[in-house]
Design goal:
6 strands; about 55% helix; single chain; about 10% strand; 10 helices; 6-stranded mixed beta sheet; alpha+beta; elongated
Length: about 350
Amino acid sequence: MIKGLHIVEERLLAGRLAAALYLTGAATGGLLLVVPGVDLVNGGLMLAIIAAGALWGTLGLTVVPWRTAPPIVSHLSSFIGLPITAAAMAATGGASSPARFYLVFVVVYCSYFYPPREAALYLVACVAVQALPFAYQDGLVDQGFLAELVVIGPIYCVLGGLIIAAKQLQLELRERANTLALTDSLTGAVNRRAFAAALGEEPAGLSRAGDGVGVLLVDLDDFKSANTLFGHTGGDRVLCAAADALREAARGNDMVARLGGDEFAILAGGVDHAGAERLADRVLAALDRADRALGLPGFRLAASVGWATYPTPVAERSKLYERADRALGAAKAAGKATGRAAGPQSTSRSLPVSTS
């Protein structure tokens, strides 16, 4: 499956740049008709090439919807540049034609905007187009054209390879920056920003059409005492242990988030009220196990949990967080290591205090 301009944010820029390159080619092609030193073999063909380039460049700037166009549109735009360049070379001297330098446009453009495998095909194609005069001109070996190909082929590959490598590094750095922007640096859980976006946008993988969605809010009990007894280093250990416990309790496609301080959340897709209740049970049990593993004397890792599900008992998805927050408040009022559900099906879940 071809990807073409697969980076959405670049589609408009890439499309307009392609159009601008065609217009540049048309303008410089017109100059080749009049500047001295050009071996004009077929003026009529050159005029047709100039007209075609100017037309496509104009359409690319004014009509083509680059943001939504399928990948084949951008590939056709790039691919057509190859036979156009070949024709321009044939019309203006073949192996010695200045038009052969239009291939640099193709190398640079495709190497930057296309995925590596697709860009590599254009690098090979550019070398092939450069070699086409062998098909209709004699004596090119003695004229040094073969030597030119021996040099230009590696140049295209190195230039294209450097651009491809730089673009991949750019994408990796951007992805890393996006990940850091959406991740809590201490616990590795997603942060409030990522949680809010997922809750509002209902991303694929969290819930399918018709499935329920659950939100569990988790507030650590007496967390301040961990900082008091063991300092901020001890508090950080508690937060990391809590995040690990939530990940242990959650399913593979659930989102575990640290909302700030000692507040956590789980966004679970494909759950009903009973499923959210089971998840809350697993959270309380996992925190109890984490407490025993931490072994901090005088401190117990436990939490109050409140949860709500959509579509029942919450009628609007936008109310999920609000209802879960109310249930969390009820759980905190009821006692430590306790969970409460929102709505008329409200239930209370708790674990006995660990004796370890």
